[in-house]
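To illustrate the input format used throughout this study, we show a single complete record. The first block contains the structure-token representation of the backbone; no residue identities are included at this stage. The design step must infer an amino acid for every position from geometry alone.
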């Protein structure tokens, strides 16, 4: 492709999630709870050539700026993603996603008898980062290790 050709158009206002690990654009959409039945235009690009990553996926969300807790969710599945906030066609903020030290309430423990899964006495899940890549989280309550594949199944 000629260098100056744009594969997907620039957006006026919203969020561009760039440098998503190849193959994970749809997981990013899912983890953000986007189903396309409400909200603005969503553009998904997959297998886009990238100098840094070889190939990458990109997701553009028009008319909405992501909240910090949404950015944290993306870090779970796309650890190299950059979040670009766009206002009036300009990138006004660029942020690398970063895994929080402790993950509260986003991920469910895979141990059915874990107290965080108890029905009568619901306790919010708490996980620590055991390994960043490959992603492994350790449950605060029962010590179970939850992996990226397990997390993907939950969304
Ligand atoms: N972008 C967009 N609409 C705009 C401005 C930027 O969709 N109005 C997209 C670009 O296509 C790119 C991302 O937002 O995918 C980041 O833009 P920019 O910072 O200009 O690109 P790079 O410098 O290549 O980014 P990086 O250094 O993070 O690789
Ligand atoms: Zn547990």
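Output of the design step:
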């Amino acid at each position: 492709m000629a260098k100056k050709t744009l594969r997907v158009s620039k957006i006026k206002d919203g969020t561009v999630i760039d440098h998503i690990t190849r193959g994970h654009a749809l997981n990013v959409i899912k983890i953000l709870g986007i189903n396309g039945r409400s909200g603005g235009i969503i553009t998904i690009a997959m297998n886009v050539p990238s100098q840094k990553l070889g190939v990458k996926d990109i997701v553009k969300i028009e008319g909405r700026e992501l909240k910090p807790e949404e950015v944290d969710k993306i870090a779970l599945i796309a650890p190299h993603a950059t979040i670009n906030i766009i206002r009036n066609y300009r990138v006004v903020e660029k942020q690398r996603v970063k895994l929080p030290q402790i993950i509260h309430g986003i991920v469910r423990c895979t141990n059915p008898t874990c107290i965080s899964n108890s029905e009568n006495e619901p306790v919010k899940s708490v996980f620590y980062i055991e390994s960043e890549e490959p992603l492994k989280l350790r449950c605060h309550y029962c010590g179970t290790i939850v992996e990226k594949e397990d997390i993907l199944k939950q969304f």
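Structural context for interpreting the output: Residues 10-11, 16, 18, 58, 60, 82, 84, 86, 89, 91, 94 surround cytidine-5'-triphosphate (ligand 1) (CB under 6 Å). The chain has two domains: 14-96, 102-154.
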